Amino acid sequence: MRGNGISIRASSGSTSAGVVSQGNHVRLEDCPFCRCRLICIRSKQPDTYNELFYKCPNNVKGDPTTCGFIRSELQYEIYLRKLDAQRARWKRDCGEVEAAAAAAEESKDGEEIDGQSGEVKAQIEQMKLQIDSALGEIAKLQMQMGELKTSIMEALVVPVVCVCVGIVLVLTMLWK
Ligand SMILES: [Zn+2]
Predict the structure, then answer these.
(1) Is residue 1 helix, strand or coil?
(2) Where are its TM segments located (predicted)?
(3) Under DSSP, is residue 8 helix (H, G, I), strand (E, B) or coil?
(4) Which of 21, 41, 106, 128 is deepest in the core (most CB within 10 A)?
């Protein structure tokens, strides 16, 4: 009973396939003036009968105050090629912008390296503190050394002075 339904479904669909593929093989862009989607029409004029035209929906034939965008199939294909070339150029320019952005990104990585160097800086600060404390130790040692020196000097000076005084005393006694 259902066999008939299936056979009907399989045979349908091939009727308008040719028309659909003919109408869809060129993509519809937006009107460069109005920014609305262009429409594809089939001419009914005697001299261009059955030819495809791509036009702005605002374009009214014979009315110069309406949008003037209308192209024959050939003209429209040329227009699309120009558009694609322009877009490729924009894309390339965008690529350059992206390259610049990537360069900026790289400098951002540099900032990250700065962050790392920040860590290094912290380590250096820590080392400086250690050095400061070491210097403090050295200063302490120097002071101790200085004290030692003065004590040594004192230890040396006192007998030397004593000896000198003794010599002077002896000499004065001899002179008299
Ligand atoms: Zn338009």
Answers:
(1) coil
(2) 152-175
(3) helix
(4) 41
Percent of the chain with pLDDT over 70: 79
- Residue 145 corresponds to which tokens in the numbers above? 């050394």
| Residue 43 CA, ligand 1 centroid: distance in Å | 19
Strand order in 70-72's β-sheet?
Answer: 39-42, 52-55, 70-72
Which range of 18-27, 107-116, 144-153 scores highest in mean pLDDT? It is 144-153
Distance 37 CA to ligand 1 centre (A): 9
Distance in Å, CA 28 to ligand 1 centroid: 13
Domain parsing of the chain, residue ranges: 17-87
Compute the distance from residue 67 Cα to the ligand 1 centre, in Å. 5
Taking the C-alpha atoms of residue 89 and residue 69, their distance in angstroms, rounded to an integer, is 23
